[in-house]
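Translate structure to sequence.
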C-alpha cells in the first residue's frame, strides 16, 4: 500500500564566514559564523530515508574515465536505491596539471561534471532537486572568491543551477 507519509526533510544550509570559506588555512575557528540560510522540504517515500553520498570524484581532464565510471556505476545504484537525497561532496574536480605538480581550475572538468550529473538525472530517475553538492578544497584552488570568473562551482554545480546559495558548506537533515 502506498501511503503518503507526513515525514519530510528540512534541509538547512549552513555557511561559514566568508573569509573562512575561501581558504585561509590559518583562519582561527573564532572567525566562524554559522547561520541557517535556506531550507527545503522534500517528501519522503515511506519511513526510511535513504541517502547516498559520493565524495572526492576528482574528475580530471586527464582521466575522462572517472566521469564515465561515475555515470556507469551511480546510475543503476540510484535506480535500485531510489534515495531521498544524493549528496555529492568535494573534491568534485582534481584541478591539477597533467603531472600533478601544480593546481588550477580547469573548466573542462566542470563541464564533465555538469554533463555527468545530467546523464545521471536523465537515466536514474532521481529528481535534480534531490541532489546537493558542495565544494572541496581542490574545487577552490586558484579561486580568489565566490563569484570570480574562475569559480566554476558557482556555474556548473547543481546547487548553483538550482539557485541555492553557492557558499553552502554543510547540510543538516531534519526529519519533521
Ligand atoms: C538529458 O536530457 C535532456 C532533456 O531531454 C537533454 O537535453 C540532455 O541532452 C540530456 N543530457 C544527457 C547528458 O544525457
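Result:
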Amino acid at each position: 500500500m502506498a501511503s503518503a507519509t507526513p515525514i519530510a526533510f528540512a534541509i538547512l544550509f549552513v555557511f561559514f564566514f566568508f573569509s573562512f570559506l575561501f581558504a585561509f588555512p590559518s583562519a582561527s575557528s573564532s572567525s566562524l559564523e554559522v547561520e541557517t540560510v535556506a531550507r527545503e522540504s522534500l517528501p519522503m517515500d515511506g519511513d526510511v530515508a535513504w541517502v547516498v553520498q559520493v565524495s572526492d570524484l576528482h574528475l580530471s581532464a586527464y582521466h575522462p574515465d572517472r566521469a564515465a565510471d561515475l555515470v556507469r556505476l551511480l546510475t543503476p545504484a540510484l535506480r535500485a536505491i531510489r534515495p531521498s537525497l544524493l549528496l555529492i561532496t568535494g573534491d568534485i574536480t582534481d584541478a591539477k596539471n597533467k603531472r600533478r605538480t601544480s593546481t588550477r581550475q580547469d573548466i573542462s572538468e566542470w563541464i564533465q561534471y555538469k554533463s555527468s550529473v545530467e546523464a545521471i538525472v536523465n537515466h536514474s530517475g532521481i529528481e535534480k532537486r534531490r541532489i546537493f553538492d558542495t565544494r572541496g578544497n581542490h574545487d577552490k584552488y586558484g579561486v580568489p572568491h565566490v563569484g570570480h570568473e574562475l569559480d566554476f562551482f558557482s556555474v556548473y554545480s547543481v546547487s548553483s543551477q538550482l539557485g541555492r546559495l553557492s557558499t553552502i558548506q554543510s547540510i543538516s537533515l531534519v526529519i519533521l
